[in-house]
């Protein structure tokens, strides 16, 4: 047995810290939560309010824009249609809204953090273990304090999703910038380009394929988080899976599971198509 | 004072450059410093002057510090100790905005693996330097078009670098460096990655351009033949130290040490040596009579072009100077001496 005198009451300290946060900054957290909620609710209303065929047309248009491939467009439209036939359209739209907000937030936070990491080896050394922790820490652990700070519902679900899903876009932004050919950077510097001109004119454009791959992974991870998020009151497809588990209704769980997979496939293919497009900017002009 | 002045440059790479610098200044060599301090000496007390309008070649093998040296001229690398000045202006004391303005206006650089921006087409690559300067689109594309045309790439404006061959990519690199009309062209092993035939074409192209433009060119190479072909003067680096500086013929005829001589042994002397440096000079007092007028070569004729003349002549060939007066003679002995490697030992 490990001697008890050496026990560190870390759990107790964390509890005290969270209590202190809730007591002193509760209102600030609420204000932040409210603004996030406003955006999410507006998006959710838009997606759920729009006629189903309009959503299908939008998906088709985005897919066409990304891939210029009719087969892919048809496949993805059918996938979305199947979600509708499973009777899960409305819930899928709720999940979609949650996913879009969480992914956007991840990208808005993740890309600048990734850039900063690429610029500073010290920051990178600090961030890598933090990212590892974000990805390996069981999500329930941070769901509880999130609940205490933001209450039950969509906002803690989004934050939990961001914590879980942001690391890939951060890592791949960092990697993409670090992989830029040093001779190209030297060339740019030798012409007197400022740091800003190098970042926006050379590093980010050349890192774009990697950043797109990161965004794609982030999207996938945020979809996979929706089931867990439903446990703290986020609505959507995850809620249906949870209900299936609670009622031992294998069929209902399976339906919701299939819908989640289909949604993931749709966004994965769209993301990949954009990734490929950013990789070969020149191939678009090849036809000339 | 020369246009570009490099004074006592030391560059030390490693965890503690200053400790190593003390040793280097005290005369320790590269291996000793590496063993004692774990630092690598990149450049060891290098001083050079480059005149305006000349093509100055720095030759050395890999690890000799030549690429490090050229990067000191636009401060892509800062020295551990020493001074670099352009036209009397100390570039090491420049702050970042001043340095960037200096790089934009006065320098152009060409890279071994081209360093082209892969996401931009030929036009936008060539216009890049002007874009950095903030020139408007119309002006910079007009200038870029002119240079694309000049390096023989008209019609390729919309192509991307990965759609071009190596030689064409380096033409883009050259056009890009020239488009800002810089005073100085820095060329870091610019033709080393090209096939031999293309390389020779590019060398000719560069010499043709230089005959018109009179830029100051600092050219880095590991290839002595290339150095001898395009260089007005050549500096030879070894292990970060300067071994010899001189005109191509001086390097070939009077190698400073065994290292340089080992290089020059395989040189095609016919292409390097000129009448002036192999002739037997005429004493000014001896007048201008009694010289063959049938077999005459100018002072700057290459040895390879003298040979056919010599074959057709039984007597010595007359060499004439700037004003077409005889300044020397070349007989069979001089030709044999020039062609034999050990003649100057």
Automatic annotation (TrEMBL), chain A:
Residues 92-271 form the ABC transmembrane type-1 domain. One of its GO terms (cellular component) is ATP-binding cassette (ABC) transporter complex. Gene3D superfamilies: MetI-like. The chain crosses the membrane at residues 20-43, 50-66, 72-89, 96-120, 140-166, 220-238, 250-270. GO terms for molecular function: amine transmembrane transporter activity; carnitine transmembrane transporter activity. Its main location: membrane. InterPro entries: MetI-like, MetI-like_sf. It is found in: Cell membrane. It is a multi-pass membrane protein. CDD domains: TM_PBP2 (cd06261). One of its GO terms (biological process) is glycine betaine transport. PROSITE patterns: ABC_TM1. Keywords: Cell membrane, Membrane, Transmembrane, Transmembrane helix, Transport. PANTHER family: GLYCINE BETAINE/PROLINE BETAINE TRANSPORT SYSTEM PERMEASE PROTEIN PROW, GLYCINE BETAINE_PROLINE BETAINE TRANSPORT SYSTEM PERMEASE PROTEIN PROW. Belongs to the binding-protein-dependent transport system permease family. This is ABC transporter permease. It comes from Thalassospira povalilytica.
UniProtKB/TrEMBL annotation, chain B:
Residues 4-264 form the ABC transporter domain. It is an enzyme of class 7 (translocase). It is a peripheral membrane protein. Its main location: membrane. It catalyses: a quaternary ammonium(out) + ATP + H2O = a quaternary ammonium(in) + ADP + phosphate + H(+). Pfam families: ABC_tran (PF00005). This is Quaternary amine transport ATP-binding protein. It comes from Thalassospira povalilytica.
């Amino acid at each position: 047995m490990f001697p008890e005198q050496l026990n560190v009451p870390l759990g107790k300290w964390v509890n005290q810290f969270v209590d202190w946060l809730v007591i002193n900054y509760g209102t600030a957290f609420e204000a932040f939560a409210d603004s996030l909620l406003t955006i999410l609710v507006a998006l959710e209303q838009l997606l759920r309010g729009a006629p189903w065929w309009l959503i299908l047309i939008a998906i088709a248009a985005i897919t066409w824009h990304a891939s210029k491939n009719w087969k892919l467009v048809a496949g993805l439209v059918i996938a979305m249609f199947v979600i509708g036939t499973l009777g899960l359209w409305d819930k899928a739209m709720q999940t979609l809204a949650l996913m879009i907000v969480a992914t956007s937030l991840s990208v808005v936070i993740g890309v600048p953090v990734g850039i900063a990491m690429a610029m500073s080896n010290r920051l990178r050394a600090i961030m890598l273990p933090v990212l590892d922790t974000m990805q390996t820490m069981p999500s329930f652990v941070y769901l509880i304090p999130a609940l205490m700070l933001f209450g039950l519902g969509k906002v803690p679900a989004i934050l939990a999703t961001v914590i879980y899903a942001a690391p890939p876009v951060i890592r791949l932004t960092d990697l993409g910038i670090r992989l830029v050919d040093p001779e190209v950077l030297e060339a740019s510097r030798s012409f007197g380009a400022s740091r800003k001109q190098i970042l926006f004119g050379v590093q980010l454009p050349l890192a774009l394929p990697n950043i797109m791959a990161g965004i794609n992974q982030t999207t996938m991870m945020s979809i996979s988080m929706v089931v867990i998020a439903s446990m703290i009151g986020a609505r959507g497809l995850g809620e249906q899976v949870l209900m299936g588990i609670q009622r031992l209704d294998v069929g209902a769980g399976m339906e919701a599971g299939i819908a989640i997979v289909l949604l993931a496939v749709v966004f994965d293919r769209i993301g990949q198509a954009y990734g490929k497009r950013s990789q070969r900017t020149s191939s678009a002009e090849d036809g000339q | 004072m020369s246009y570009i002045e490099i004074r006592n440059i030391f560059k030390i790479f490693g965890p503690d450059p200053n400790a190593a610098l003390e040793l280097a200044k005290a005369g320790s060599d590269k291996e000793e410093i590496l063993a004692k301090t774990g630092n690598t000496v990149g450049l060891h007390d290098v001083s050079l002057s480059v005149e305006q309008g000349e093509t100055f070649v720095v030759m050395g093998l890999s690890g000799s510090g030549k690429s490090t040296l050229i990067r000191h001229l636009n401060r892509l690398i800062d020295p551990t100790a020493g001074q670099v000045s352009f036209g009397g202006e100390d570039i090491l004391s420049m702050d970042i905005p001043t340095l960037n303005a200096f790089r934009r206006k006065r320098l152009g650089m060409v890279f071994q693996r081209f360093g082209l921006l892969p996401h931009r087409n030929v036009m936008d690559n060539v216009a890049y330097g002007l874009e950095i300067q903030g020139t408007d689109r119309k002006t910079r594309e007009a200038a870029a078009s002119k240079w694309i045309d000049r390096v023989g790439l008209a019609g390729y404006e919309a192509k991307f670098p990965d759609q071009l061959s190596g030689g064409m990519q380096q033409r883009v690199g050259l056009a890009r460096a020239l488009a800002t009309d810089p005073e100085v062209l820095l060329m870091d092993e610019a033709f080393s990655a090209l096939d031999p035939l293309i390389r020779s074409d590019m060398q000719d192209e560069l010499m043709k351009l230089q005959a018109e433009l009179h830029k100051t060119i600092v050219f880095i190479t590991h290839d002595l033949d290339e150095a001898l072909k395009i260089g007005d003067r050549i500096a030879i680096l070894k292990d970060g130290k300067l071994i010899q500086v001189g005109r191509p013929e001086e390097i070939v005829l009077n190698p400073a040490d065994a290292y340089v001589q080992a290089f020059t042994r395989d040189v095609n002397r016919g292409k390097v040596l000129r009448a002036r440096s192999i002739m037997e000079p005429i004493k000014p007092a001896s007048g201008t009579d009694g010289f063959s007028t049938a077999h005459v070569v100018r002072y700057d004729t290459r040895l390879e072009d003298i040979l056919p003349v010599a074959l057709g002549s039984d007597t010595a060939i007359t060499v004439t100077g700037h004003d077409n007066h005889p300044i020397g003679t070349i007989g069979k002995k001089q030709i044999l001496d020039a062609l034999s490697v050990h003649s100057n030992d």
